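Can you give me the bound-state structure? Components:
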Amino acid sequence: MRRTVPLVITFIAGTFMIVSFFFHEGSIPHKLAGRVKDWGIIIAAFAVVLGTGNIIRVSLHKARRGEDRAYKIVLLVCLFTTMGLGLVLGVDPRIHKSWLIGTWREGHYNPFDWIYNQVQLPLGATMFSLLVFYITSAAYRAFRVRSLEAGILLGTAVLVLLGQIPFMSYASVGDVSMDSIMYWIMKVPNVAAKRAILIGAAMGIVSMSLKIILGIERSYLGGD
Amino acid sequence: MEWLSRIDRRWLYLVMAAVIIVPFLTQTTFKGPPSQSAKTIYHAIESLPPGAVVLVSADYDPGSEAEIYPMNVAIFHHLAHKDVRVICTQLWPQGRPLVEKALAKVYYPAGKKYGKDFVNLGYKSGGQLLINKMVESIRAPFPTDVFGTPVDRIPAMRGVESLKDVALVISLSAGTPGTKEWVQQAQAKLGFPLAAGVTAVTAPDIFPYLNTGQLIGILGGLRGAADYETLVDRPGRGVRGMGPQSTGHLLIVLFIVLGNIGYLLARRKAKGGDG
Amino acid sequence: MTVLALTWQQAYHDGGIWVAAILTLAIFSFLYRDNPVYKLAEHIFVGVAAGYTVAYAYWQVFVPNLWYPLHGLYRGSYPGRGTEEWWWTLLLHVPAALGLLFFLRFSRRFSWLSRWAIAFLVGAYAGVNLIAYFQSDLILQTKGTFVLLDPARLAEDGWYKVLALNIPILIGVLASLTYFFFSKPHRGVLGVSARTGIFFLMAAFGASFGYTVMARISLFIGRLQFLSYDWIYPLFDLKPPLS
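Here's the bound-state model for the whole set.
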């Protein structure tokens, strides 16, 4: 029961997807697979909610143990406020649920949208923009031409960086402009290596998927 | 020279900030010819027949807003100029407010009507499964638009049953699920023209698809946005950003060169010491 | 009343810009060093983002894709009883139940049941990925590598152009693939090929690095645009260069 049922479910769900590919549209296997996909979309949404559930559990656990308690409480308050507002008022920029009473009525700005624009957006965007400084520091300290390979890496990096500068299309080495050098790098050596990686990864994923469907690979079920 | 290698990282941060902030404040901009890839996307939109359906999949979030939102706006400017119907979908929940901001900025002022000229079907979970499903049906996973209006009652959706009825798909993507999944799950099956506007981090990885023709064009990062803004003659955040962007690139190149000069000098010294 | 409404709207908007600006600066404070203000902003971010996705999953997936059809079924309004669509709507209880099983992870006794839901998703994704990777990344990419053997393409685009672009790509793909081929030691012809492959791979990583730098700089510019155009310019009644 504990191991067989999940393996059977995986096998059925996976096989439907593969088999349907070989049938024309409107055929019964194709229709069944279509419904399985509909189900998958719904179950994936549950998985999204589960992610938040996990954050709540971990934060509660840490708060209880006294680890960063104040921060974890802030986290939970923000989480429940955002979630609560979104669930009650809807996620549209303007409220259009007519059964609401009090300050927030139909047509009013939705505070859920405010939280997105004034809290989530600046925090998310700034968090990632910090990386520019780390990469600057890395460029200065870590990128050394220690070997021919490192030289090629740095050389292409420099050429690509220069090629992306708009006025560099007017600069040239001999007859070749800087930006056409960059495009050549992107379209020839870059394509060749990335394609080799794509093909290699595809072989890995195809065989792994087959192993999962056939029940040979079971690590996703966890140990017991 | 010793102090050069022991300099506090915060000084480096400060130099980088200054190199970006100064041209930003002086509003220095640099112009260059748009890339071939941007031009291909431009011509693909330009040659759409009247009434054609374009699907814009806005799969990005605040973390990539700086790069993709300007692209989104520039592409909407172009689409709003044409007599085409636009359907927006999102594979990332955080993408919806951003695409709506772009619609509010471009589509409503252009006199276009929601539901008739464009519609936002909103976010759905599932990623690969969802795109795979859309090959056979858009209406099954998207029974309503974002506001809960049944799709059957939306004029913009008339005659659109699946991705087969879509003339062009534009994937504005910041990662997974995104352009790669669009190529694998839908384009490889149906062969429709697929244009990609992606973050600069993802761009190099999808160039193989451009080579095989699975993508018609790639707009990469802020430069891609600037290219498209130039093409539609609507300079915005992309073109404005090219000044600080360029000085930033030059500084990184300078740092790489300086760092290596220091390294080579130190190595020569060490060798000399040995011998 | 109008005045009050106006101030409320202003507070909603202008206050919001201030909140956004302060949070932006709070994150930037990390550049100096780790500090409580940054840590607070970080926790706010995680909390808000996690709460946000649940509301979206509810309103954009559960309500239209699960609740509307089931509601129609319970009320008997749609679809007609006994039709094919009616049966399928009835069967929507299966994904709903499987999805709910996920939450048994939090129970010690029944956590094994949550594997049923995981098994469904893993199976479905394995199925669609198997086909998609095979078709797109294996077949079409391999086909693209050997495009120089396609006489139609050679005639169409001009043989010189096709060969000049695709011969180096062909060499690069084969060489890079041999680098990933670990079943035999990289000696002799294989060694030369693998070493050539490394050069191609390094060039590609260099290109990726260049693009990554570009991305990071853009993100910082985006924040500058926000701080100045949305926050500082209006403070001094200046008109931002972008509206």
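A couple of observations. The mean pLDDT of chain C is 90. Chain C has two domains: 1-91, 146-243.
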